[in-house]
Design a protein that fits this description.
Largest sheet of chain A: 7 strands, mixed
Helix content of chain A: 10-25%
Largest interface: A-B, 39 and 39 residues
Number of strands of chain A: 11
Oligomer: homodimer
Number of helices of chain A: 7
Radius of gyration of chain A: 17 Å
Strand order of the largest sheet of chain A: 3-2-4-5-1-8-9
Chain lengths: 249, 249
């Protein structure tokens, strides 16, 4: 993990989406304009990483159909004979949602984690993540909502930003009779542990655009920031969140 | 892990509770009659394990107050100079809820996991778990609902029963607009993986009593059983679930 880059003034370009599908809409429909703006006309082919779901063929078809409709060709990494080489040649990367533990384990198993880090931070290859794909782009998967169905060799993730994200962030329902921890309580428990980072709670419909050292909140709703030892803060869509990139938060 | 016992005809006595607090009630109030029936008059002192919460002193006080009111003395393992020795001397064990990852890591860090297994399965020391304390009594924590705030050395748990439990089991809300996976979808994802066990979804208010090779569902609601490759099944309170104990399910 020590070989990964946490440099400043990097070329990174990231589109980190909270959720793949918004209630009542189609797959990636709610963020399709942002996807086109993000990959633009400079990228012709996108490398899709379907590791978070069991049915990789079906998942690749779903992603391919959507991206084709937006004008992009899709190569799925599970169809490549050499996954590391596929990352080395990628013009753009998209990691889709599903189970974050399965996804991270599979990134390690295929030795592509460091390579993705390098391609995005050194070479400026644009990276889009959705849900679990957003989780693994951060420091660690310590703030995923997913069930730990497999045991990855570490919770450390690709590290494209120096903080963590909680996708599908869910506000506490004051009428709930369920006594499991609320999402907010879970994130507060994370901050009880030493050496933990800030956590950006991205509600469904929101996403974070990162260009170099600039971060902007996009989408239809506010995001909630949890920083250890400080009050939680709400940010409107359009907010400049670049301060999250300056140091490990 | 290989030293742990998966023997039959064992003395084990377990009370595995879904949740510590039921909506509108006090701590362990909804299961206090079952606790008294379970520990009975043969046990005077109970060893409490507060590792799932950060504030161990506060947690021990909560547990002590409750168990004192039921006629039991409480020793908290975090107050013992030698945690392994505390398990060796325990007449009864209670592991409380909180974060399952923190709890399991701490059981490993203090080398008490195998010792608890031995005391319960070989020596017949009664074991009560609630929520996270129920999760860690099973084969693994693969079906916890908790956030992975720390990285335990394994997801393998104490192994007092040959299946997994999902505490705080929550039915799918047909009116929800949230697009994160439902609990049922998460457990189905677990069963997509190889070498996975049956999962008993214990709704809040329900609990499982295990006496030797007999398992009985107690409490106020039904439980839902997920077995790989089979339809899910509902069981009424009072059901005999001993078949879950015969083999690794």
């Amino acid at each position: 993990m020590t070989t990964r880059i946490i440099a400043k003034d990097m070329k990174r370009r990231l589109l980190l989406v909270s959720n793949s599908t918004l209630h009542g809409g189609g797959y990636l429909e709610h963020c399709q304009q942002q996807i086109k703006d993000f990959f633009g006309k400079g990228v012709a082919r996108i490398l899709f990483i379907p590791y978070a779901l069991c049915d990789r063929d079906g998942y690749a078809k779903t992603a391919r159909d959507k991206f084709n409709s937006l004008g992009y060709e899709v190569d799925s990494i599970h169809e490549a004979s050499d996954p590391v080489e596929a990352v080395r040649k990628a013009e753009g990367i998209f990691i889709g949602g599903g189970n974050t533990f399965r996804l991270l384990k599979c990134l390690y198993d295929n030795n592509v984690l460091s390579e993705i880090n390098k391609r995005v931070l050194q070479d400026g290859v644009p990276y889009m993540g959705s849900s679990a794909g957003t989780n693994v782009s951060t420091v660690s998967i310590n703030t995923t909502n997913d069930m730990p169905i497999v045991y990855p060799p570490s919770f450390n993730a690709i590290g494209l930003v120096p903080f963590n994200i909680n996708p599908h962030f869910l506000d506490t329902d004051p009428n709930s009779r369920h006594m499991g921890e609320t999402r907010e309580q879970r994130i507060i428990q994370y901050h009880e542990e030493p050496d933990t980072t800030s956590v950006l709670g991205l509600r469904e419909g929101s996403m974070l655009l990162v260009e170099g050292n600039k971060a902007t909140l996009l989408g239809t709703c506010k995001a909630r920031l949890f920083t250890r030892g400080k009050p939680t803060t709400e940010f409107e869509s359009g907010s400049d969140l670049s301060f999250l990139l300056t140091d490990r938060q």
